[in-house]
Amino acid sequence: MIFAYLGDAPAPAFELPCKDVFEGDDRIVFARSETWDCNWLQLVENSLDAAHVSFVHQKGRIGTFIENVSDAVPTLEFEETDAGIRQIATRGVGNVRVSDWTFPNNNHISVPGLQKDDPWIDIGHWNVPLDDVTTARMNIWAVPRSTPEADRRISDYFEARADYNAADHYRELFYENIFPEDTVMSLTSAQDYLAQRGQGVLADRDNEILGRSDAGIALLRRIFAREMQRLRPVSRQRDGASSNMPRSCRFRWWHREADSTAPRVARPLAAPRADGGRRRAAGRATGVTRDHRDPSAHRSGRELGAK
Ligand SMILES: [Fe+2]
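# fe (ii) ion complex -> structure
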C-alpha cells in the first residue's frame, strides 16, 4: 500500500504512523480493496461503533467473527490518543477487543483466525472517499506465520477471495437474503456493507437519533469538528469561536447493560497526552486477552524511510 500527498507543493511535514504488525517478516500480509456505493463517513463511523458487531455480524449467517467474539452487548470505553481514538469493547471475562482509530480514515482492529486454532489477524482499514457517494474500502490483513502448511492454507484462502466486493452483490444481499458461503472475510464484508449501505448512499443525518451505544460516533464527530475548526484561517475564526470547541475532548463512557459485574481485564487506560498536539498514535489493536498497549508497535514513517 502506497500513501501519497497529492496537494499543492510543498508537501507538509508529517509522520505517518507505522506498525510492526503490518510490516514484520513474521506476518503474511494480504491487501484487498472494495468500492462501495455510499458516502465514506458511513464507513468511517462504523469503525467507532463496536456494538454493531453483536448485531450486524449475525445477519444472514453466523460466521467465524461472531462465533468467537460472541453476541453479548459490550461495555464500551473510549479514549482520545495522540492521533485518534482507542476503543475498548468488553463482553465478559477475557473477552476484550481493543481497536485503534487514527484520523482521518484508518481503523486497526483484530479478528479471529480462519480456523479455531489459527492466530488472530490484524486488519488495517483505510476508507477513502472517491466522491460524495463512492468510497474505496482499502485494507490489509496481517496474519502471523505459523507452520508452512498453515501458511499455505491461509495464503490459498486469501488468494481465492481477493476479488470479492460486497457492492457487486447488492440485490442478493438486500432483496434475496443470499449471503456468501465463505464465513470469514466475504461474509463479514457483506454484513458490514448491508449495515452501511443500508443507510442509503448518503445517510440522512438530519433525522437520526443517536443512542447510548453511539458514544464513539459522537466523540468522533466532536474531534472532527474541533480539528476542522483549527484548520480554518485565523481571519475567518470569529472571536471566541475557538473556545466553543474543546481543545481536549477526552471522553470516557460506559455501557453497563451487559454483564456489569464481570471483572475487567483491560489494563488502565494510557495517561492522557500532555502536549495537546497531534502526533502519531500510540497503542495497537488486539484481539481477546492479548497485550494491547505496546507503544513500540508504532514507528514513524521517518524512522522507516519513505513508507
Ligand atoms: Fe463490522
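# post-check
Residues 239-307 have pLDDT under 50 and may be disordered.
Residues 52-53, 56-57, 192 surround fe (ii) ion (CB under 6 Å).
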